[in-house]
Amino acid sequence: MDETTKVRPTSVELGDLDTLEAESMFIIREVAAEFEHPVMLFSGGKDSVLMLQLARKAFAPAPVPFPIMHVDTGHNFPEVIDFRDKVVAEYGLRLEVASVQDLIDRGIIKVGHELESRNRHQTRALLDAIKDGGFDAVFGGGRRDEDKARAKERVLSFRDKFGQWDPKNQRPELWRLYNGRHRKGEHIRVFPISDWTELDVWRYLSREQIELPSIYFAHDREVVDNEGLLMAVNEYFPLPEGAESHVEMVRYRTVGDATLTGAVPSRATDYESVIEETSVSRITERGATRGDDRFSEAAMEDRKREGYF
Amino acid sequence: MAEMLRIATAGSVDDGKSTLIGRLLHDTKAIFEDQLEAIERTSEKRGDEQTDLALLTDGLRAEREQGITIDVAYRYFATPKRKFVIADTPGHIQYTRNMVTGASTANLALLLIDARKGVLEQTRRHALLSSMLGVPHLVLCVNKMDLVDYSRQVYDEIREEFTQFAAKLDITDLSFVPISALAGDNVVEGSANMPWFHGQPLLGHLEDVHIASDRNLVDNRFPVQYVIRPQSAENRDYRGFAGSVAGGIFKQGDEVMVMPSRKASKIAAIDTPDGPVEQAYPPMAVTLRLEDEVDISRGDMICRPQNQPTVNRRFDARICWFDETSHLRTDIPYQLKHTTRWVAAEIEKLHYQLDVDTLHADREATTLEVNDIGRVTIETASPLFFDTYRLNRTTGSFILVDPGTDLTVAAGMIIGAGGDPVTEEATAVTTTKPVAENITFHPSKLTREARAAALGATGATIWMTGLSGSGKSTIATAIEHTLVSAGRPAFMLDGDNLRHGLNSNLGFSEEDRNENVRRVGEVAKILAESGTVAIASLVSPYRAERDRVRAIHEEAGIPFFEVFVDTSLEECERRDPKGLYAKARAGEITDLTGVGAPYEAPTTPDLVTAPDLEEAVRQVLGLLP
Fold first, then answer.
1. Which domains does chain A have, with CATH numbers?
2. I need a labelling partner for A278 at 20 to 30 A (CA). Which of B100, B158, B206, B443 fits?
């Protein structure tokens, strides 16, 4: 018997990452089939990279049948914007940009000063873009392990015409029978990677060898310790008076508004070492890196109620 | 390869569920330091004496402030063996709605009992819901063992009491673990305090429980979700049917049939984004390509020509009402979602409301409200392609949506086709055919005469039917004894005994009773064919099922004798050897034959006998060749 005719034992068990992948693909296909104008949020962060990858898989060999949307605070890491544009070109996607700066310029959003956090303003920009684009389903890369409010959100989550979430009045969600019915002006937020943990995301991206913005891997950067967060010193975060910056090897665990996203010290320059660090990390990714979630236990819930992703 | 296990937990406020989950998360390092610090701060602010681990799962502001859980929360942890997803549902308010939601996708249900309090109404209720939702594995944690001095006796009593209750439910795998979530006994590590317990600690059990065969890998079902037709030049002719496998194993080259058009074709390829694969099984998401051009759209179902789902516009189902703002109405249309289809549907009839505490069926009920469960007949605008929920949780489930509010008002589990006689006949025909494929009958080279000559005996089947407590088993035992003492091979097939093994996955619904009879009939036939006198002692209440057993015997040329043990209901109830009638009258059992379920006496039995033992044995023996 030669190599090629050898009978291989065929397994009918699916591993955890393959199960997650299959479940996410099911959700994405379901929404593409039932909604008229879906759109997928894309920040260039690892979760949105994962989500986009799953969408490409769901419709292969056809292209992804909906556009992607970047909610742009104007306070970006240049590496992330470069990455975004590269992905759009490579995959032949249509990109919508919901620009906070644009709303500021038009006088719709008032800001105190140029460098204050624009995190909260993203909600306005997002809701306006959803309305203007007539989108009825908006895919977001939220995961239930990220935050306690997110742990209670449905996979298909209803938003009223003001974009608001009512956590106490959510539709029951059983089996895989998703109910995305809604009226004109209302929309549904869709979270296809709800059941993935941070470690799952890293293991999958590594397995599939998917490219990420370079800031996710350890690199030398000028940083300053700011109230426990390691902030990159740049145009969005000038060195506070009296503080001293230093160059340190760091990476980012999340990608958000550059005025409040911190880095973590790291030696992990490739997937393997990131996974190793992630498996032993004792602090959540948001706790370690996001100024926005450290204000109160309910910070995320409050923002989500208003329409945040 | 690590698998994923979905767990639904339920428990009351004080039985330590949150502590247990907290401990599992903590000991598997799924809790982060900043999460712990955050809940420590909140506990302190609220003035709690110690850090309340429940805060880890109570995510919403209202929950934290009021110290209650109002919704299903999902928690995640992993060991090198498995990834776990816990759907944590509150035990007190909205329990049914939330528990049903969590259990709908669960592989395993985890129930907690406070060792000091024993089996409570709520424990029974949660076990019933788990069994109804078809959760294949149930683990009962007897918690707070530290507060009963780790007493084996306390544990054994609870175990015994629950096992007895569970026998009435449809639970295939039941396990018990005595634990102390607070002290950590038998949660992650074994317990030195309970050396008498030889089972695995909870986590080990969760890691090892075998779930791969819980899926239906026999009945091929593929609901088409999305048709992929790239417009690009290089893929101009590509036409793929994307979806997730709901049952069976699809292989390249398989003959398939498409519902509802019943067009046949073959699988040309099973595509995944990472290239074609040889086979696809649940829950894989794949794209099937067929050899022929068949018109297929979303909502169609691909199956095998010899193994089709039931196609019907009417069916019976158990439904659970979810909506607080409305109640079940038979005079308005709903939207029903089943697999990947939406159809208009009407609830034709509410048969009864089930009391989840007493299992009593209230046939006077006129509607269902939030958290109510009942049995209904539903009619849809176009036919559904379905299986019973028992057979397939994906093709046997549906939701109802109120088109006026767009809210999901109910969830349903299909019991079977509706009372349409044409369909019933069709179903009856298909169920007698083998559902698995590639089965050929291998006739033996031995004739029955050759066997009989070798054994010096001829086999036959004696089928004893009658009410529970009529004396069937007593007579059967005596016959078996008499025959074997006389040197003639005989074997008794007792209904109750077989329910511990061969039929341990069957309950007492009409469908299950029929399957029970069918299996015992087949086993009796094999025994009789081998030269043994098979003595089946079964209530077997339905005439049609007994006739079917007779038919398979006659077809094979094996002697078959139907013996009706004609003891009156009053007499059976007076004797009540198993205490079943007492329970039925108390409402604890709803489907006891003669009380809550029908008994169809034989019209042409081979023998009618009374419970007088000697006389009955003599009469029965007289039948045998």
1. 16-196+300-306 (3.40.50.620), 201-294 (no CATH)
2. B206
Contacts of B232 (CB under 8 A, 6+ apart): A61, A62, A63
Residue B438 lies in a domain: no
In a domain? residue B327: yes
Q: Do B60 and A148 touch (CB under 8 A)?
A: yes
- Residues, chain A: 309
CA B306 – CA A93 distance, rounded (Å): 44
CB pairs under 8 A between A and B: 192
Question: Between B61, B75, B228, which is nearest A298 by CB?
Answer: B61
Write out the two tokens for B498. 């077989």
Same domain, B527 and B570: yes
Please report whether residue B439 resides in a domain. Answer: no
State how beta strands B397-401 and B490-494 pair. Answer: unpaired
pLDDT more than 70, % of chain B:
89
Regarding whether B475 and B375 lie in a shared domain, the answer is no
> Are B466 and B580 part of one and the same domain?
yes
Examine the domain organization and report whether B147 and B12 are in the same domain.
Answer: yes
pLDDT, averaged per 10 consecutive residues of chain A (309 residues), comes to 38 88 97 96 92 95 94 84 92 88 79 71 84 93 81 87 81 92 92 92 92 90 82 80 86 79 87 83 64 55 67
Asked if A285 reaches chain B (Cβ–Cβ under 8 Å), the answer is no
**Which of A22, A284, A301 lies at the smallest CB-CB distance from B283?**
A22
In chain A, which among 69-128 make CB contacts under 8 A with chain B? none
| Total number of domains constituting chain B | 4
Q: Is the pLDDT of residue B441 over 70?
A: no
Residue A282: closest C-alpha in chain B: B32
Where a domain ends, among B213, B233, B254?
Answer: B213
Q: Could you tell me if B52 and B189 lie in one domain?
A: yes
Picking from A151, A176, A281, the nearest residue to B73 by CB comes out as: A151
Mutate to test the interface with B, among A20, A177, A191 (most CBs of B within 10 A): A177
B230 contacts A62? CB cut-off 8 A: yes
Residues B195 and B228 in one domain: no
**What is residue B38's predicted lDDT score, i.e. its pLDDT?**
74
pLDDT higher than 60, residue B550:
yes
Confidence of residue B542 (pLDDT cuts 50, 70, 90): confident
Give the pLDDT of residue B378. 95
The CATH number given to whatever domain includes residue B501 is 3.40.50.300
Task: Select from A148, A170, A286 the residue whose CB has the most chain B CBs within 10 Å, as the one to mutate to test that interface.
Answer: A148
Which H or E run includes B204?
Answer: helix B202-208
Last residue of some domain: B153, B185, B213?
B213
Q: Are B496 and B540 in contact (CB under 8 A)?
A: no
pLDDT of residue B70: 60
Residue B536 lies in a domain: yes
Quickly list DSSP for A262-276. PBEE----SHHHHHH
Q: According to DSSP H, which parts of B364-457 are helical?
A: 421-432, 448-455
Q: Among A147, A148, A168, select the one facing B70 at the smallest CB separation.
A: A168
CB B18 within 8 A of CB B56: yes
Residue of B nearest to A208 (CA): B274
Query: Can B540 be counted among the known catalytic residues?
Result: yes
Are residues B592 and B466 part of one domain? Answer: yes
Q: For the residues of B37-50, what is the DSSP string, one character each?
A: HHHHHHHHHHT-SS
Q: Do B1 and A15 touch (CB under 8 A)?
A: yes
CATH of the domain at B418: 2.40.30.10
Same domain, B157 and B231: no
Asked if the C-beta of A37 comes within 8 angstroms of chain B's C-beta atoms, the answer is no
Phi, psi (rounded to 5 degrees) for B568: -65, 155
- Domain range holding B156? 3-213
> Which is higher by pLDDT, B490 or B419?
B490
Q: Which of B50-59, B317-326, B338-347 has the lowest mean pLDDT?
A: B50-59
**Residues B328-350, mean pLDDT to the nearest whole number:** 95
